[in-house]
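Researcher: We're teaching a course module on how sequence relates to structure. For the next exercise, students receive a sequence and then see the predicted structure as tokens, so they can try to spot secondary structure elements on their own. Here is the exercise chain.
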Amino acid sequence: MQNNMAGMREQYDTALLGILQHEGQIAGFLDAMFGFLYRRTDFYRIMKQKTDRLGFPPGVAVKLLLNAYKQYEDLARKDEAEKENLKQMKEALEPTDTVPPAAVRTVEVPTSNQPIGEVSGRSPGSVDSGESTSASGSHETPQPMVTEDASRVENKPSDKNSEKKDQDPELTKQQEKFQANPASHNGAMRDNYSWSQTINDVDAQIKVPKYVTKGKDVKVVIEKKRLKVSYKLDTGQWLDIMNDVLSWDVMKEESMWSLVPGDHIHVNLEKKEERWWEALLVSETKINVRKIDASRPMSDLDDEAQAKIGEMMYNDRQKKLGLPTSDEKKVHNLLQDAWDADGSPFKGQPFDPSKVNMTPGGVVSINEDKP
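Model: And here is the predicted structure for the students to work with:
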């Protein structure tokens, strides 16, 4: 549904592109858009009383902007994931050349400021097993999304019904179809509506006839655990298209809705607690939450977790560029301090890091091929 919405908006591309080219940058373009809303609409007007007919309740206008941004952010994230999958598939099909390691011998050194010890009695062609383990463990690719336990729902993971769902190929295929559609990502598509979710909120899109083009022809009532949606027929009567109990409680003050004329009513429900829903409505067939995308953006994490993941991403990027990681830089500095210490075989020589390799565990390998 959202892909169709994106296509519908292409009719404005020529006009918007003209504004963007005239402004020359995104900041100026956005300033023009918000300036228009300020001058010609009631977008920035705050409703102080329920009887006010113009403006929005406090915080609603901002949430409209965030919902619009999030809609296309999700599409962009999906596009990037598809590109990355294609790239990985392409790399997997390409042959790789195996380069034999250079002959090395190992030296055991402490990780403190003590001098380097004596060379071990291993043969020049051997490689220390500790180094191999560390090297292989350091090539894990960090993920900028944190995966949660998607089974934290009403049914327990050991439930036999859940196990049957996991093994049912039809249900698995159906959930994959839901996951591929942004309107039902982590949710489901039903006869007259679809819904998607994150760990914090639910987005429902309820279909309406093409003649429903004005907000006054729509009624949406959001309660703590009930959602009622109706629209006015040609005869003037009201038709309920949804009136049911929600699976879990929502914060009705933080929830909102909007009308996409002639297409659907978009309802955004703020969850009262962080959890994955198996269904939007209690009368609805439950989805298998084991098959959804339980990851969450880095921005949802605390500062310490974001810093750690940022360091992992930095190290992965450094490896791909053939540059030292943050740990390797620390080891390099430690090795430089010990290079000219008492007992070092390199004392008095200019520091040349290419002659040795040092693991974070404190094992130094001397390259025999280096003069």
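Model: If you want an answer key for the exercise: The chain has a mean pLDDT of 75. The longest helix spans residues 60-93.
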